[in-house]
User: Fold MOT6 protein from Ptilorrhoa leucosticta.
Amino acid sequence: MSQGEAAGRGTAKPQDRGWAWMVLLAAVLLQGLTLGFPCCIGVFFTDLQHEFQASNSQTSWFPSIMVAVLHGGGPLCSILVKRFGCRFAVMLGGLLSGLGMVSSSFCKSISQLYLTAGLITGLGSCFSFQAGVTVLGYYFVRWRTLANAVASTGVSLGFTLWPLLSQYLLDEMGWRNTFLIFGGILLNCCVCGAIMRPIQLASGSLPQSAKPEEEPGSRAEEAQLSNGASPHHPTLQQHTRRTKCFQVLQKYLAFDIFCQNKGYQIYTIGVTWMMMGFALPHVYLVPYAIHNGVEERKAALLISVIGFINIFIRPFTGLLSGHRVFTGRRIYLFSLAVLLCGLSNFICVISAEFSVLILYCVILSIAMSGVGALTFQVLMDVVEMDRFSSALGLFTILESITLLIGPPLTGFLVDITSDFHYVFYNSSFFLISAALFMGFSFCALEKKNKLREASKARLDNPSRYQYSEMSTEPKAENQCPPAVEYITSI
Assistant:
């Protein structure tokens, strides 16, 4: 049953009220169960190293694969959402996540963990998380910014509770039984998916938008047939396959948007580069603290501090960024938050005392709240909603590449030098450079758009500019330039 058929069978609910708030609650829990889950892997880092006699680099591949697949499975999730709807994708993701963690409890080598916890659990989390983000875009319009910010508090809840629960279960029953219990907990994603019942889609939404993309290939095939070519002719079949392949790439990976929309292009490149350093503190903060003599329970508490502060800061960030003053300018708030994340890492280089690490977690949490609350809202600002699912697919698969290679490369550097400080040096470099790139690039793009609008206004109304410079100044002052929205394809 297609998304459109599912929507037709479902009851059309008013947006921004009613059942939409139940869907938002499900999205909060969903993000806590999926996107917040990888944060607890650092708690098991030392135990897994000892169990499988693995190096820092080998052990870091396990969380890297999980996070990379979580973000990079976007195209597959887009296909599921378009074909079966968000509810199906979320529930399938819950089943895969639970299966992956249950299988992980029986693993005999670190490479088996790459497959079970890394690939299977990561893919399941991807389906549940990304379908949950997509459905919010249809249930909320007026309060979309607030809804995204509130939903992202689920990540904060996950950051707070997963490490504490992990450390408790690890102490009581070991990592194998803990992973078995985690499999049961992740099955609750299916319950969240059941709440996300289909909504009637407006015209121009995902199912309808697919139709015009199929027309060019259909017209080309019809033209060949009208010229007398047989439908079974090898040349025509090859051309048809290429056309269909191009249609699939355009539909699910949004390469056309990436090539035409400069705002989307800049944002995707910036976030992809940023992810090389963004995940490093989450993977290595607990091992770094333990390596410097901090007790294991206190080390696990560091991640929980980050999550606890995020619970309160993220909604405030969402409300602030939703103000009309920041319309079209949320990218600058996002860049500022990324810059602060990068600068905060230097605190860990100064000292590894527990009190200093707590200060680091507080500052990092404030910065992360801005990144988490604005990541998908900025993406919704730079692309139109009817192409959001496709844009999200390409966006996440590109950032998953850097998420995959970032921690293992840094772990290899730590293995060679035996110096954990390189974790925070690397993280700061990638975060600060990405923030500066996005900030300055969008500033230049905004100036370019303003000049283009001014030039277009002169061409449309040449009579205004026939007079002397003195006579045109008052008129120019009375006209406000149009608000810049990074949705326009360039």
Observations:
- Residues 144-186 form the longest helix (43 residues).
- Residues 17-199 form a domain with the Growth Hormone; Chain: A; fold (CATH 1.20.1250.20).
- Confidence is low (pLDDT under 50) at residues 1-13, 202-227, 464-490.
- The radius of gyration is 24 Å.
